[in-house]
Write a structure and sequence with these properties.
The chain is about 15% helix and about 40% strand. It is mainly β. The longest helix is centred in the N-terminal third of the chain and has 15 residues, at about 1-15.
C-alpha cells in the first residue's frame, strides 16, 4: 500500500513540475597535479534578462596554501562548465592546443576567445568590471561523439592563461561568460502552464560535476588530481534579475540563500548564497524558480 502511495506521489510531483532539474556549476583545474593553492575569494554573478539570456561574471583570486610559495601559482587554469558559451567576447581563434588536449574524444561544436579583466578589490560588487588585460582566455564547446551526441547537452572547456594579476591579493580577475543553458523550463503539465504560466529555473553554483554521462565528468576524471579547491575566504554566488517590476520569484533553494532589491541597479532583484569551503568536490548550488510577465500585473494567478 505504501509503495502505491509513494508511486502516486512521485507521479503527481512529475505532473505538476515539482521535481528539481539537473544541477549546473563549475570546477577549476590547475596545469600541474596537486596544486599548492586554492581559489578564493570567488564571486559568481549571473545576470538574467527578461528574454532569459544569462551572462556570468566570474571574479576570483588565488590564495597559496600555508607555507607554499607564490611561484607555485604561476600556471594556466582550466575551467569546466556544464553549459554552452553563447558567443565570443574577444576576437581571434581559440588556442589550438585546448582542443588537442582533449585527445579527440569529443566533438567540438564551437570555439573562440573570451576577455579577461582585472579590478581592484574596492570595485567588487559595484558592477564595474575593471580594466581589460592583454591576456585572453580560450574556450571550446564540446559534446559526446556517437549515439549520445544528441542526448547530452554541450559543455565548455575554458583555458585561463596565467597572469600576475591572479596572485595579486588586492585585485580579482574577472571572466565574462555569455552562457546558454543555465535557465531551464520547469517540468509542468499543460494544465499548470495554462493557469499559472511557464516557470523557469536558474541553477548556478560551484563544485558540481553533473551526470557522469556528460563530457564534463570524463574531462574531470582524467585530471581529477589537478582540482583547485575553494579557499577559506568569503565567496558568494549571486543571481541578479533585471526588470523586477515584471518578475515573479516562486521558490529559492537552499533556505540559506537571501533575496533583496539590488543596491546598485535600479529595478533589479538579487538572490545570493555564501559558499562554504570544503576539502573535496561538493556541489553548492543555488536554484531560483521564476517567471517574467507582461503588462502591469501578473493576471493569471488573479484569474485563477
Amino acid at each position: 500500500m505504501m509503495k502505491r502511495v509513494r508511486g502516486a506521489l512521485i507521479a503527481l510531483l512529475a505532473l505538476t513540475g515539482f521535481l528539481p532539474p539537473a544541477a549546473s556549476a563549475q570546477v577549476l583545474l590547475a596545469s600541474e597535479p596537486h596544486p599548492d593553492f586554492t581559489v578564493g575569494p570567488l564571486f559568481l554573478i549571473a545576470t538574467v534578462r527578461p528574454d532569459l539570456a544569462v551572462t556570468v561574471n566570474l571574479s576570483f583570486s588565488l590564495t597559496p596554501r600555508p607555507g607554499a610559495s607564490r611561484g607555485a601559482m604561476e600556471q594556466d587554469l582550466f575551467l569546466l562548465w556544464p553549459a554552452e558559451v553563447a558567443e565570443a567576447t574577444a576576437t581571434g581563434p581559440a588556442d589550438p592546443a585546448l582542443a588537442r588536449g582533449l585527445g579527440g574524444k569529443f566533438v567540438v561544436q564551437n570555439s573562440g576567445r573570451l576577455q579577461l579583466r582585472s579590478r581592484d578589490r574596492t570595485l567588487v560588487g559595484t558592477g564595474q568590471l575593471g580594466e581589460i588585460l592583454p591576456q585572453v582566455a580560450s574556450y571550446v564547446t564540446v559534446t559526446r561523439a556517437g549515439a549520445l551526441a544528441g542526448q547530452v547537452s554541450p559543455v565548455s572547456y575554458i583555458k585561463i592563461p596565467w597572469t600576475p594579476r591572479l596572485t595579486d591579493p588586492l585585485t580579482v580577475t574577472t571572466l565574462v561568460l555569455p552562457l546558454r543553458g543555465l535557465v531551464t523550463p520547469k517540468p509542468a503539465s499543460w494544465v499548470a502552464e495554462t493557469f499559472w504560466g511557464r516557470r523557469w529555473i536558474l541553477t548556478v553554483g560551484f563544485g558540481d560535476l553533473g551526470s557522469p554521462v556528460m563530457p564534463l565528468y570524463s574531462i574531470y576524471f582524467a585530471h581529477r588530481d589537478r582540482v583547485v579547491r575553494l579557499a577559506r575566504e568569503y565567496s558568494q554566488v549571486i543571481a541578479t534579475f533585471s526588470d523586477s517590476d515584471h518578475l515573479l520569484i516562486d521558490d529559492i533553494e537552499p533556505a540559506a540563500a537571501t533575496r533583496r532589491p539590488s543596491r546598485i541597479r535600479a529595478g533589479s532583484e538579487v538572490v545570493a548564497l555564501v559558499l562554504t569551503p570544503v576539502d573535496g568536490i561538493a556541489p553548492q548550488n543555488m536554484k531560483v524558480q521564476f517567471s517574467y510577465f507582461a503588462g502591469r500585473i501578473a493576471w493569471r494567478p488573479i484569474l485563477v
